[in-house]
Design brief:
- There is one protein chain.
- The chain contains 13 helices and 2 strands.
- It is mainly alpha-helical and 294 residues long.
- It has one domain: MetI-like (MetI-like fold), CATH 1.10.3720.10.
- It has a two-stranded antiparallel sheet.
- The radius of gyration is 24 Å and the shape is globular.
- 27% of the residues are buried.
- It is found in: Cell inner membrane; Cell membrane.
- Keywords: Cell inner membrane, Cell membrane, Membrane, Transmembrane, Transmembrane helix, Transport.
- Its main location: membrane.
Length: 294
């Protein structure tokens, strides 16, 4: 039996953890506690008076048709963004892994878009598909398609989904490439010798071995779609037209900072936090069971 290893300095580990704990406390636990506190209050826009109303803000929010519309938009948006971003990134990673010459150049070019800020990414896609001056919008209109995301809600949703997915593809690509490089080539070669085709080798060997990375990216992309896409939606559609692209995080901003309904906005942020925590817990509880850690 090996002797138990003990760290001689009892204070140093806590000192090393202290900066991270302070950052998490200031930027997560403190805002979360303030949101919980404000969600049970009714405040005037200038903060001069507040009244305790209990769960009245939550009842009003959950009975608001606009909020239920935002829930529906968020469900469609988050599922579409996560699936599209991960599927395209996996395809690009598989193709880039096959390239012999210039492999590093292609990988670098595919990673660069992740450095673009969400608001900038949104403006880029808005300029390309703007119905009055966008190059791709002109091509769509010339082919007979009535493209106008500023007036048609389904087209606006499609535009923000593609823009948000494009922004996240580079992040997913980086992890998928790392996962593909970690797969022993002998397994693939053995399957090829046994007569397995390229498609069968991918689905029976490569993709199962990428399961841990795929699960990790599923959690990250879900959180990204819920929170980090605010800048894209704000830059491209502003939640319109007619609230067709108003997601939960954007409604929190619109009600709190534009309409100055502070109590309802705080209640919405608490509900959003609970939804994301619940989704993450469900993913770890049920989806992770299908993940094989080899």
């Amino acid at each position: 039996m090996s002797p138990r290893v003990t760290f001689p300095n009892k204070i140093l580990p806590y000192a090393l953890l202290l900066p991270q704990l302070v950052i998490v406390g200031i930027f997560f636990y403190w805002p979360a506690s303030q949101a919980l506190y404000q969600s049970v209050l009714r405040e005037d826009p200038f903060g001069l008076r507040s009244t305790f109303v209990g769960l009245a803000n939550f009842r009003r929010v959950l009975n608001d048709p606009n909020y239920l519309n935002a829930v529906q938009n968020t469900a469609v948006f988050s599922v579409a963004v996560a699936f599209l971003a991960m599927a395209v990134a996996l395809l690009l990673a598989v193709m880039a892994d096959k390239i012999i010459k210039g492999k590093g150049f292609y990988r670098t070019m595919l990673i660069w878009p992740y450095a673009v800020a969400p608001a900038i990414a949104g403006m880029v896609w808005l300029f390309m598909f703007n119905p009055t001056m966008g190059t791709f919008a002109f091509m769509l209109r010339s082919s007979g398609y009535a493209w106008d995301p500023l007036l048609k809600g389904d087209q606006a949703m499609l535009l923000v989904i593609v823009a948000a997915a494009w922004k996240q593809i580079s992040y997913n690509f980086l992890f998928f490439v790392a996962g593909l490089q970690a797969i022993p080539k002998t397994l693939i070669e053995a399957a090829a010798i046994d007569g397995a085709g390229e498609t069968k080798r991918f689905w029976t060997i490569v993709f199962p071995l990428l399961a841990p990375i795929t699960f990790f990216l599923l959690v990250i992309n879900t959180t990204y779609a819920f929170f980090d896409t605010f800048g894209i939606i704000h830059a491209v559609t502003g939640g319109g037209p007619g609230k067709a692209t108003e997601t939960l995080v954007y409604k929190v901003y619109h009600d709190g900072f534009v309409n100055l309904i502070l109590g309802d906005s705080a209640a919405q942020s608490v509900i959003l936090m609970v939804i994301v925590i619940a989704l993450t817990a469900i993913q770890f509880r049920y989806v992770e069971k299908k993940v094989h850690y080899g």
